[in-house]
């Protein structure tokens, strides 16, 4: 599990479009000086007066861990494709924004709503009952959760890493849903390289603060996060909503917006969203503090190759 704060860099897929129809794609952290320089070089070419265009600079970008290098003069850079989208201010919009009382063009600060898919009845009633029975018998095998940064008080919950029958069942079903879920999230359908699964319990006062799920090298290939929710009846906890934050482009960087989507942890439902979205789990109130009354999930990640 990885965590990252709002300002932490994301991985950006960058395709450089060069004169003559050439192009080259590479991955860069969103705070990479090369990425900033590339975006500036594109924006710099938009001045209405050619005299405002700065002299061409030479880009030298190391590739494949310094085994190769891509060199080109900035005037040969025609455009750039970024995923996620990064918008820069052109020379004109920078000037317009600098003018007193000028309204800031919307493109400078657009909020990009996060997409998610929330499906009910993931397991049959009989499967749910068996799963709950299975979990009730394994309370003593649950251990405290951690985060890759080791930051104290970032996450409080317990986890079961081995639950073979149900983890296989979940993974198979998640795989089967990919052709439906990926297009709904505006992603191309791909064959997952791996699907991870863990079983988590949130009891009184448990939470998971703001993070994303693919912000470290060992988690970078996580494309989708899924969370399957279940609990005993009658439901004996409140809270524990999952907040998925929208995104904003700020100073050319892809960052968390103030707005968010709220996911209720509905029994026997599963939610899918992009692992790069910032999200958090609000504190759970479970007055009985009984394990059986916890907010349970089977949650995991779909990795691309
Ligand atoms: O329990 C949830 O709703 C989300 C959990 C989560 O964000 C995670 O395990 O990475
Ligand atoms: Fe997460």
Automatic annotation (TrEMBL):
Its cofactor is L-ascorbate. It comes from the Bacteria. Pfam families: 2OG-FeII_Oxy_3. Keywords: Dioxygenase, Iron, Metal-binding, Oxidoreductase, Vitamin C. Gene3D superfamilies: q2cbj1_9rhob like domain. Residues 188-304 form the Fe2OG dioxygenase domain. The keyword 4Fe-4S does not apply. This is 2OG-Fe(II) oxygenase. It comes from Roseofilum casamattae BLCC-M143.
